Amino acid sequence: MSALRILVPIKRVIDYAVKPRVNKAQTAVETAGVKHSMNPFDDLSVEESVDIRDRNRAPGGVEDICAISAGPPKAQDILRTAMAMGADRGIHVEMKEGEELEPLMVAKMLKKVAEQQRSNLVILGKQSIDGDSAQTGQMLAGLLGWSQATQACKVEFGEGDSVTVTKEVDGGVETVRAKLPMVVTTDLRLNVPRYATLPNIMKAKKKKLDKMTLQDLGLDNEKRLKVLKVTEPAARQGGGKVEDVDGLISKLKELGAL
Predict the structure, then answer these.
(1) Which residues are paired to 36 by β-bridges?
(2) Ranges for the Electron transfer flavoprotein alpha/beta-subunit N-terminal domain (predicted)?
(3) What is the rounded CA–CA span in Å between residue 117 and residue 248?
(4) Virtual CA dihedral for 126, 132, 133, 137, nearest 10 degrees?
(5) C-alpha dihedral over 182, 106, 91, 178, to 10 degrees?
(6) How far apart are CA 175 and CA 52, in angstroms?
(7) Pair type for strands 182-186 and 62-71
(8) For 75-129, what is each residue's pLDDT tens digit?
(9) Whole-number Å distance between alpha carbons of 173 and 88
(10) Containing H/E element for 213?
């Protein structure tokens, strides 16, 4: 098996423990003054990449683990977190505060970087918890012409650049086998991410962090989608009580459920 050069895309999102609020203009979710962290599915991707190296799971070994994120200056925080978890280096694609990338543009950006970095395995979260598009991994595989396995809950390496991935599907799991180069998207049951220790956080400050822009990659942030309106879910209405089974049946008929 070839030595792995793993590219790990990560995204800075509103922390999963924070309840998002829609802004006054109803154009997006309010992000000012809100705690951000690494997208939870990307956390799994970093852990899986480091675990492959630490436990020598790939016969050819791991040559390089590179984390990449596109965003404002604060995106460097999650890149440092990824490096504290074990990534060898990071790439920050600099963007303005509030500027967003659509999944297709992210895939185009990652294609350019994967080719530049000579990556042969891309491990990324199946979706981000802000956009929930779940499209980037599939689009990236299509643009690169690589094999893909989505929603991975187990990744195993064999001989001859063979990779076996167990995937979460409706009602069970599905196992697929493909050859490198490959794109894998991660699901929640894949692993349990490690905490970055203080010594590793300090070491991460000395690791290499390259900076670039979309223009450096020959790309322009072209918009294909337009958000018309963002609203909060309607408030749930309280339930009611019935005296007996006949009353329940009558209520269900009244609601059109029977």
Answers:
(1) 14
(2) 26-221
(3) 64
(4) -20
(5) 0
(6) 19
(7) unpaired
(8) 999 999 999 999 999 999 999 887 889 999 999 999 999 999 999 999 999 999 9
(9) 32
(10) none
Q: What CA–CA distance (Å, rounded) separates 72 from 91?
A: 13
The domains found in the chain, sorted by start residue, are 4-254 (3.40.50.620)
Q: What is the pTM of this model?
A: 0.86
The CA angle 198-199-201, to the nearest 5 degrees, is: 60
Amino acid identity of residue 246, one-letter, is D
Q: Measured between alpha carbons, how far is 177 from 166 in angstroms, rounded to an integer?
A: 9
Which residues are CB-contacts of 38 (< 8 A; sequence separation ≥ 6)?
10, 11, 12, 13, 46, 78, 81, 82
168's CB contacts (< 8 A; 6+ apart) are: 151, 152, 153, 187, 189
Backbone angles phi, psi at 71, to 5 degrees: 165, -175
Would you say 124 and 138 are in contact if contact means Cβ atoms under 8 Å apart?
no
- In this structure, the chain runs to a length of 258
> Is 177 in contact with 152 (CB distance < 8 Å)?
no
The token duo for 60 is 């050819």
Tell me how far the alpha carbon of residue 249 is from its chain's centroid. 46
Closest CA to 75 of 39, 29, 129, 122: 39
- Cα separation of 11 and 124, whole Å? 10
Q: Which two three-digit tokens encode residue 159?
A: 């001989």
Sign of the Cα pseudo-torsion (100, 103, 109, 114, in order): positive
Q: In the beta sheet, which residues pair with residue 13?
A: 37
Give how far Cα 203 sits from Cα of 13, 94, 198, 207, Å: 24, 23, 9, 7
Question: pLDDT tens for residues 123-155?
Answer: 999 999 988 899 999 999 999 999 999 999 999
Give 38's strand partners. Answer: 12
